[in-house]
Amino acid sequence: MKNMHNNLILKNLVINPDIQSALINNMPVVALESTIICHGMPYPQNIETAKEVEKIVTDNGAIPATIAIINGRLKVGLTSDEMEYLAINGGEIQKVSRRDLPFILSQEKDGATTVAATMIIAAMAKINIFATGGIGGVHRDINESLDISADLQELAKTNVAVVCSGVKSILDIPRTLEYLETHGVPVIGYRTNNMPAFYTTDSGSSVDYNIGSSREIAKAMKMKWDMNFNGGMVIANPIPEKYSLPAEEISSVINLALDEMKKRKIIGKKTTPFLLSKIAEKTEGKSLASNIQLIFNNAALAAKIAVSFTQIK
Ligand code: PSU
Ligand code: MN
Asked: Residue 11: its pLDDT value, please?
């Protein structure tokens, strides 16, 4: 079994040579996801953002590794043609989480990887830091839908730390935090006690630990994994104040989007992309501009943590 697994990984995992050599030489690498490109933002902002994010990671001393599935191959590091292809074909590309991976591979399809799937592939490549915008979570209608993102389960078992701007208030933030606690996933606030809510800096809930430096975060990651505790960490990095949106405005827009989702009976993996695009539409692009800025901010922090992690490893 073990050999089969290794062969499968060798055959299907394609790591860009620069990234591979960086990993072998203990140089810092930051994983980046592709659902955000295909289903999180419209074209051309998606490609512009994806390229700028890679540049920001580089400027902050780490090597970017955008992850996606192309022709059934798990790609760690995309060519600019591949990135352009994903960005242009956005909605046509399947959104891939843990449950989908075997099918996309066996059918040699393309896939946009969620936080969960990106963590899995990053861990296969031995990358342990990942930057994104927001993670999935417990949905507000949990009692009816039982909708809990597979991202949370992945954080419970896969050893990748995820830098994000918290969880959007399309989700039930207190319940998302309870779920993470149950599964032993710590939530670190970067220079804040407040759990950020994506477009705003304070969701009203608290983080578990307020840590002020990339080095201290890297030390906690190392300690967790040295203790053989499986699973990731959430590093919640609040949106820079000047790009945050007024809390009342965004909350009323989110309520409208949630009502519309109910009316249209949108469920399952369509839920998150639907809500994201409705919010962008209803804020006339203001939410998109904030979304882009917070990802930039997360990419920079993830790169700094990756650098610190290689220094103490
Ligand atoms: N939240 C965002 N933007 C996103 C996503 C979440 O603010 O683009 C994407 C991420 O890829 C995340 C996925 O992993 O949605 C979660 O989807 P679901 O809720 O279906 O698990
Ligand atoms: Mn879901």
From this structure: 82
- Determine whether the shortest distance from the Cβ of 168 to ligand 1 is under 6 A: yes
Count Cα atoms within 13 angstroms, Cβ side, for 173. 22
| Dist. CA 59 → ligand 1 center (Å) | 26
Ligand 1: does its nearest atom lie under 6 Å from the Cβ of 90?
no
pLDDT tens for residues 248-287?
999 999 999 999 999 999 999 999 999 988 998 999 889 9
Known catalytic membership, residue 168: yes
* Ligand 1 contact, 138 CB (< 6 A): no
**Smallest Cα–Cα separation from 238: which of 176, 189, 276?**
189
Atom of ligand 1 nearest to the CA of 97: 21
Of 39, 135, 294, the one to substitute when testing ligand 1's pocket (max ligand atoms within 8 A of C-beta) is 135
How far apart are alpha carbons 260 and 280 in whole angstroms?
14
Catalytic-residue membership of 265: no
How far is Cα 138 from Cα 150, in angstroms, rounded to an integer?
10
Distance from C-alpha of 161 to C-alpha of 197, rounded to nearest angstrom = 18
Give me ligand 2 centre to Cα 148, in Å.
5
Ligand 1 proximity of 77 Cβ (cutoff 6 Å): no
Per residue in 101-146, pLDDT tens?
Answer: 999 999 999 999 999 999 999 999 999 999 999 999 999 999 999 9
Mean of the per-residue pLDDT values for the chain? 95
Asked if pLDDT for residue 70 goes beyond 70, the answer is yes
Determine if ligand 1 sits within 6 Å of the CB of residue 88.
no
pLDDT digits (tens, 9 = 90+) for 214-252: 999 999 999 999 999 999 999 999 999 999 999 999 999
Beta-strand pair 73-76/63-70: antiparallel
Task: Give me the DSSP letters along 41-72.
Answer: S-TTHHHHHHHHHHHHHHHTT-EEEEEEEETT
> Contact, 57 vs 47, CB < 8 A?
no
